[in-house]
Write a structure and sequence with these properties.
- With about 140 residues, the chain is α+β, with helices and mostly antiparallel strands.
- It has a single domain, classed as Endonuclease, Chain A.
- Strand 3, helix 3 and strand 4 form a beta-alpha-beta unit.
- It starts with 9 loop residues before the first helix and ends with a helix.
């Protein structure tokens, strides 16, 4: 069963990439071309959900939320979505759009820290495993 980037949602992912919010544009400018040391993808599909930014190597998702996410019914949907994604071992970090727009340096500082922690955790898992090569290959997917 395919889980990532389902063909069914390809046009929706493309539309979201072409109509990014100002906060997404600002953060993408800092994430693209491995500026943080890791390759991030934007509008990445996981099951029927689309993640704003995703690093497959670290299994790390970044979500940017606008004001609509403060509404109770939207927040409940976000929790269901987040549980689904976390059940596949993906770490999620959420930011409000205004955090990115008003203090991107702090956001980037935290993202660098999280990426390092996730990378260190992956390296530790590789060292403790018996088949390091196959685990490394899984991390690269």
């Amino acid at each position: 069963m395919q889980l990532f980037n389902l063909k069914l949602h390809k046009s929706k992912r493309r539309l979201l990439r072409n109509k990014m919010t100002p906060a997404e544009v600002a953060l993408w400018r800092e994430l693209r071309r491995e500026k943080l040391g890791y390759k991030f993808r934007r509008q990445y599909g996981v099951g029927s959900y689309i993640i704003d930014f995703y690093c497959p190597q670290l299994k790390f998702a970044i979500e940017l939320d606008g004001d609509v996410h403060a509404l109770e019914h939207v927040h409940k949907k976000d929790l269901i979505r987040e549980k689904f994604i976390k059940d596949y071992g993906i770490t999620i970090k959420r930011y409000w759009n205004h955090q990115v727009l008003e203090d991107i340096d702090s956001v980037l500082e935290e993202l660098v820290y999280i990426c390092k922690q996730l990378n260190d955790s992956n390296v530790q898992q590789l060292r403790s495993g018996s088949d390091s090569f196959s685990k490394l290959e899984k991390l690269r997917r």
